[in-house]
């Protein structure tokens, strides 16, 4: 298939691009390289342009795309609290522009990267896809709005969608050829691996007074390669004429910040500094997926559902990446 991948030079987008190429698809990546890297697209074609660049978008879609996978977005929860317009602009307005262009060009299918942040403060221990949407930060709200636009457009046109609500994505390609290379990353496993690799002084634990077993935030960490595989399965479903779908992407169990930090210390053998800091703006106490639907309906079977494996892959990548940068 002829595929457009927005944000394909970024962390999740580059891993999915690699799997799509391996499956034999032709991939064009559209990415403004604000946090992504040209090398990360591998053998895909790179169009270095912003999603708001209508001309670039028109030219690419004019070539005739069989599907769009839309990753390009801003993804840092606390930044969305301090700079909401950046999030509504990049994530909602630019996404509306992309969906409108897809509609004009008759693109049959769109896969959209959404987030567990749409659920806000879940009322149940594990949250399934039918839970109420009540985001507590602009990031989650910006993605919730884009989901809604896509669903409404699909109801009014032949377009079919796949929406994937990611929980906490982590890890790297097992051979350490690809991983998270985001500058000034804020995600916990990435930050802790940077500390273990000597690229930062230590790690702060944001909040130790949450109503969780050890007082720190609990998240459902999913390996980026398992997440990428879910995209490939969803694409196959849509390409075969399947109907629109919405799935949580997680493993169904959570780890606390302390457990994650401890795992990175243990697996790396590096006793990096850890300090306790106040809660971070916009953070829920706990977010864990009920991801049964994805397994049942698409036959998705995760290969790396193990925190130590995620940490090992993230560490191997971080060490390779840091030595490459020196
Ligand atoms: N944390 C720390 N120290 C750090 C970084 C994070 O204690 O240096 C804590 C956070 O407070 C939180 C947990 O680690 O409790 C995870 O934080 P991340 O920044 O790694 O990830 P978030 O949960 O904030 O957000 C991520 C994605 C969102 C997604 C969300 C779903 O960025 O897209 O996971 O859980 F919606």
UniProtKB/TrEMBL annotation:
SUPFAM superfamilies: NAD(P)-binding Rossmann-fold domains (SSF51735)
Record's catalysed reaction(s): UDP-alpha-D-glucose = UDP-alpha-D-galactose
The protein's enzyme class: isomerase
Gene Ontology BP, a term: galactose catabolic process via UDP-galactose, Leloir pathway
Domain of life: Bacteria
Pfam families per UniProt: Epimerase (PF01370)
EC assignment: 5.1.3.2
Associated pathway: Carbohydrate metabolism; galactose metabolism
Gene Ontology MF terms in the entry: UDP-glucose 4-epimerase activity
Domain NAD-dependent epimerase/dehydratase, first and last residues per copy: 4-250
Keywords linked to the UniProt accession: Carbohydrate metabolism, Isomerase, NAD
Cofactor: NAD(+)
InterPro entries: Epimerase_deHydtase (IPR001509), NAD(P)-bd_dom_sf (IPR036291), UDP_G4E (IPR005886)
Subunit annotation: Homodimer.
Family of the protein in this entry: Belongs to the NAD(P)-dependent epimerase/dehydratase family.
Protein name listed in UniProt: UDP-glucose 4-epimerase
Lineage: Bacteria, Pseudomonadati, Pseudomonadota, Gammaproteobacteria, Chromatiales
Gene that specifies this protein: galE
């Amino acid at each position: 298939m002829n595929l457009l991948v927005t944000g394909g030079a970024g962390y999740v987008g580059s891993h999915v691009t690699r799997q799509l190429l391996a499956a034999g698809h032709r991939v064009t990546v559209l990415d403004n390289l604000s946090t992504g890297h040209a090398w990360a697209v591998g053998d895909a074609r790179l169009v270095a342009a912003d999603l708001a660049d209508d001309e670039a978008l028109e030219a690419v879609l004019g070539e005739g795309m069989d599907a769009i996978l839309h990753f390009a977005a801003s993804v840092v929860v606390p930044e969305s609290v301090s700079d909401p317009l950046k999030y509504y602009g990049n994530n909602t307005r630019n996404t509306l522009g992309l969906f409108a262009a897809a509609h004009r060009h008759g693109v049959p299918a769109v896969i959209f990267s959404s987030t567990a942040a749409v659920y806000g403060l879940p009322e149940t221990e594990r949250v399934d896809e039918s839970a109420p949407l009540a985001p507590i930060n602009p990031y989650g709200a910006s993605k919730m709005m884009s989901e809604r636009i896509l669903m409404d457009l699909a109801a009014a046109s032949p377009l079919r969608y796949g929406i994937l609500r990611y929980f906490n994505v982590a890890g790297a390609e097992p051979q350490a050829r690809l991983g998270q290379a985001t500058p000034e990353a804020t995600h916990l496993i990435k930050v802790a691996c940077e500390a273990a690799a000597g690229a930062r002084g230590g790690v702060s634990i944001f909040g130790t007074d949450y109503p969780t077993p050890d007082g720190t935030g609990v998240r459902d960490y999913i390996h980026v390669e398992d997440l990428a595989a879910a995209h490939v399965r969803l694409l196959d479903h849509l390409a075969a004429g399947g109907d629109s779908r919405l799935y949580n992407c997680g493993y169904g169990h959570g780890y606390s910040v302390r457990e994650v930090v401890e795992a990175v210390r243990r697996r790396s053998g590096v006793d990096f500094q850890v300090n306790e800091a106040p809660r971070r703006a916009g953070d829920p106490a706990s977010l864990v997926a009920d991801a049964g639907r994805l397994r049942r309906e698409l036959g998705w079977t995760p290969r790396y559902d193990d925190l130590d494996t995620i940490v090992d892959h993230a560490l191997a990548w971080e060490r390779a990446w840091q030595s490459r940068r020196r």
